[in-house]
Every structure is written in structure tokens, then in C-alpha cells.
Protein: VOC domain-containing protein
Amino acid sequence: MAMFERIESIYVPVIDLQASINWYQQHLGLKLLSQEKTTAQFSVYDGITKLTLIETMNFKPIRYINEQHKAPYFNFHILNLKLTYEELESAGVKLSSISENEYLHSFEIIDPNGNWLGVCYEKESSPYYKPESEQHPLLDRVGAVFIPVRDLQKSLDFYEKALGLTLYHHWGGGADLGVNSKDNLITLFQINDGGVETLAEVGRSYFSFYSADLDVTRSSLEQKGIASTAAVEQDSLAYCRLTDPDGHGLLVISGVKKVVVVN
Structure:
């Protein structure tokens, strides 16, 4: 049995919640699932990972989790590069230029708060390629969460062997691990200059794992020698944190029935 069922949500800070809700609905086509005083949660077409907006007092926009490698915090997956880019551009959405590597084309959406949101279109050479579709949503799903690491093998041992994620692709300088699916990915990439900014330095966790049974998950972690914080119960949910080899604090939640944001 897998330790986690999925990446539960991506967290994006905003200045004005209602204005941001309107923009994400109107310009990105996301469906609003729930809203509370300072948070709003969206589904991304038929993807299992949600996107949560958080109105914050000490606002700091997200850009790249690592500037040198121009790696975003996360990316959206799309099914048609040309049409999606043109549709977003014609709607007045601020976009970066399109870049590419061996496996994909990518660009960034810049929201009204100054957040940079990654977007990727997989080439036929990619292990995650899907045929292009003219009948497509703007954003198909959350594609991957990016995590910079100092020692790739050490991090692979942690995420694959200790946390039970599935290794799908290793390209030397990084690796993709799935949370029960190739459509639900954690992407690790090697930083050779030692410049890895931990999530403690970034601020709040920018994504969360979902566990069906937090007690069982914490017990499994303990058996593998991985410490986690005590479980905290809050309304209809419970959560804990653990730390990876680079000091990244990882949020694990369980029992989700409404918007979940844990500082």
C-alpha cells in the first residue's frame, strides 16, 4: 500500500483573494471548489491535484524555486502548445517566451500578483507525451512539483525507498517520481553549486501530500527511521510534517473535506 494517495494541493499566495479568484476562473478556466475567508480551492480540469489560493499579509510572489535553473515551483500540463499559448495571449494573460529542451516546450503564466506559474507541453520524445488535442481545456492538470536537491541519489533513496514514490524517469541531472500515477509527479533536480533554498527559507509549504490514514503513515515513517511532527487535528482534518535530506519541510494531510491551508 502506497504511503500517499496523491499530491493533494498546490498553494499559491495572492494579495487580493476575490480579485484572484475572478482572474483564475476567467483567464485560466479553473473551477472553484470552495472558498473561505482567506483561501480558495480550484480543480484543474480532471487532474487529481488541486490549486489553492492563499491571501497573505506578508505577500511574496513565487517565481522560480531555483533561479539558476529557471525551475518553477510547479507546472501545469497542456495538450496543445500553439493554441493554448495563443488563447492565453489573446485573453490578455502575461506570458513568458516559449523555451524547450529534449523532452518538452515550456513557458510561464504571470498572474496579476506577480506569481510565475509553469506550463509544459511534452514532446513525442517525452515518457509523458500525450497526443495533441484541438479540443482541449486551457490547462489539463497540475503536471509536476519541482524540488531542488544537493545529492540526487540520496534524495532518490528518500523519496523512492522511504516514501514509496515510483521512479518513472531518471535523466542524470534529475528524476521524476510518481505519487501513484505518471500524471502526479514530483520532479527532483540536482543543484551542483550547493545553492538549495529550503522550504523553511521559502516560507509555507507550497504543496501537500494526501494520506488516507495519518496514523498509519506516521507509524510507517517511524519504522523507516524518519521523524515527523506530532499529528495535529483541526476541524475535519489532521496534518503533520516531515523533513527531506535537504531540509525541505513536507506537509502531509488527511481527512480533507474543505480547503486546507496550514502555515
Remarks:
- The first helix runs from residue 17 to 28.
